[in-house]
Amino acid sequence: MLAALAVAASACGNGAPEPAPTTEPLTADEAETAAYLSERTMELWVVYNAYDLEGLSDFYEEGYWLEEEEQIRRDMTPFESRGITFTAEETSPPRQIEPGRWELTHTARFSGGSVNMRFIYERFDGEWLLTYAEVE
Question: What's the pTM value of the predicted model, to 2 decimals?
Answer without folding.
Answer: 0.81
